Amino acid sequence: MASSDWIEVQRLAAEFQRAQLSSALQKLSERNCIEIVSKLIDLKLIDVFYTNDGKEYITLEQLSREICDELYLHGGRISLTDLVPILNISYHAIESRAQNISQTKPEIHLVSGQLIDDDHLDHIAEEINENLQQTGQITVVELTKQYELPMEFILQQIRKRLGTIIQGQQDKYDHHVFFTEGFLARNRARIRGALSAITVPTSVSAIIAQNKLPERLFFAVADELISTKRIQASLSGGRQANVATFIPDVHSRSQNEWIDNFLKQNGYLEYAALTRLGLGDPKSFCRKRFRETSLLYLSSCCVGSYILQQIEAAVEEALVSQSWVEVLPLLPSVFDEEDAEQIIQHVLKNSQNLPGKDALVIGHSAVTSNAYVQNLRLIFKPMIEEKASEVVASGDYLQALADQRNAKEKSFKPEQSNEKKDRKDERRKKANEGKLGGGTQGRETKTRATKKKYQKGKNDSDDEGEEEFVGGSSSASTELQFMSLDKISNVLRKQESLSDAPDEFVEDIAQRLYPSLQSSFQEAARLAFEAVLSATSGQRRQTHSELQNKVQLLLQNIKQGEKAIQFFASLDIQQQLSRHLLKTAGSELVNELVSYVSQDTNVANDSKDLSLEARQKIINGLPQNIRVPLQGLHKASQGSIIEEFLSEADVALTACDVVLRKADKKKDKTIPIQQRHMLIEQLNAAQDAALVLHVAVLLLFHTVTQTVLNASGRFVPYIISFLQSHLPQSIGELLSELQGLVIQELTSKGDEELLETVRQKMENLIPRVREAAVAYKKSIAITQE
């Protein structure tokens, strides 16, 4: 070194010594230092971390060096949470530097909040290899639990050291399993020996359990042995030990040979038999084994073409000959009804020779033709005609028609009442709405009710539609039945072609025939009824004409009786006579109408013998359009108001389609004469004194008033009282005397002598009364007051 340089060094050393020995002229406080550092950090001129106590700063590089030093001191593995108290730095700062270290240094790894270097991983690999060599097999799951590291991380590190530090190999089918070559060789030999000794299908789970083999290794070794033809066998059921089965080829060959021979000889294969042979899925086996053979796969077996051809021939013969065939007896005993039904459907669908449209499957296993079923209908044709004639002749057909009408009307009434109620509610609602005005100045308005006659057409049409609908549902329950299903079945069993048919087949045929037979019977009954009506139409017209004449005569008598009653001044007498008139002539008229219209319901009756109860019962059975008017007429005949009765009679005659002839004035003039002659004949024929007096009084009343009075014997005193002022005194005394004798006869029945005297006097007096009643004539009849 030159002298000049040495001198310069000494000078600098002296200056440095002076600087050290001299005191500072200006000093920075701790607070100023903190502010300066903070400002530098904000300006990003420096990058440092605070310590947890805030008294020190540390740079990033220093923190990284200290973390690496601690990792080395802890044997290559340390948790980030353990570094926080050691370095007195926050977890966030340590974590960020740890990530930087793991990225910049490949030999250091950040895993699950821990720093681990390769030296530590090599040490773990050595432990794993030692364990593997001892046990022969190890799994990643076990290592994960042991070393508390992620499974994928351990798997990755093992793969890196496989063949170097770790002496073993990885399972091809399970990458989380590793084993040694010795372990593989030992188990391969054991598996090869176990499989070589098996001659029958055996469950893989049984093989593994008995020989204590590793399940994962078994399938890999077995597949290798089978693929290299070292073991002549196959595995079925997948790669799960509980469902997989080991099947030796020696067994498969004998099994396949037996299956092929059975199918060839019998034409079918039963799934249950294949299951007993050890096949887990027989149907799939058959589909795979007989891929090129046409088989029909059923629920319990599969069928070959031989049996299908036999069934097709039997069905074709039955259809061509219009007979029937039961397929189930033609099949082997292992077939059930469901199999038979599937075979029939297959044959009918795929056969080119069968007229499929005409085929009819009965039950599950019987086949026939529609033509055969239709031919069976011909058996019942004579029975239908005979039964139709019987129901028409007995009146059951007419009664059924009446029941149908009644059922239709009863079911219609509730709907009609509900409809009326709905209409009433609607009208009330509209009326309420009409009373509400619009806006703040709305005024009350009234809604005018629409007259019913303007709504009649619409409502009637709706009611008719509802009536038809209800009638359709109730007619089936009230119509006559031709024959029950049991009887139809009994008739069919008597036929030679069905003598050996099963009961189910016959009953099914009966059910199919029942609707058409019932329809034919109804049509036959209708035609028979129309024939009867046509034969009796002439007699019906004659009866109608007689009814017209009789009703017209009865109405004339009632009107004449009404005029006659008006001659009596007492209202009580008038009411009694009116009640008697309606009870006699009125009831007779009602009986005539009821007897006439009841012929439609086939109720035999005599109009003269109908009681009130019998007449009411017949009226209740009539259609509504006739029943309601006749009900009103029947009720009026029990009263005492003749005008009401005549009004109801007009309505009833219209409902019964009885039109009265126009009045004949010439004929009307002869009516009083006829009535007088009729009374005279009754008087001459009468022998009893009371009857002679009754008829004589009526004859004299007719002569005086020119009207016919319909009165019973109890009204004779009132009639005589009326006639006293209109007859000569002599005739009046005769009537009074005979009246007294009649009363005396009734009151003195115990005195025979007095009775004899009274009867003697009556016998002498009767001719005189007859003569007086017949001979009396009045030129001018009195008028009603």
From TrEMBL:
The keyword Transferase applies. Residues 669-771 form the E3 UFM1-protein ligase-like C-terminal domain. The keyword Lipid biosynthesis does not apply. Residues 405-425 have a biased composition (Basic and acidic residues). Keywords: Ligase, Transferase, Ubl conjugation pathway. Residues 8-286 form the E3 UFM1-protein ligase 1-like N-terminal domain. Residues 544-662 form the E3 UFM1-protein ligase 1-like domain. GO terms for cellular component: endoplasmic reticulum membrane. It comes from the Eukaryota. E3 UFM1-protein ligase that mediates ufmylation of target proteins. This is E3 UFM1-protein ligase 1 homolog. The lineage of its organism: Eukaryota, Metazoa, Ecdysozoa, Arthropoda, Crustacea.
